[in-house]
Amino acid sequence: MPELPEVETVRRTLEPKILKRRILDTEVHYPRLLQNCTESELVSYLQSRRFVKLDRRGKYLIAVLDSGSRLVLHLRMTGRLTALPSGLPLEKHTSLQIHMDGDLELRLVDQRKFATLHLLHESGYGAIKGLATMGVEPLDSGFTPEYLKAQLEGRTASVKSVILDQRRIGGLGNIYADESLYRAGIFPGKPGGSLTFDEIQRLHTSIRAVIREGIRFRGTTFRDYVDGDGKSGGFQERLQVYGKEGETCRGCGRPIARIKLAGRSSYYCAYCQV
Question: At what angle do helices 4-18 and 197-216 cross, to 10 degrees?
Answer without folding.
Answer: 30
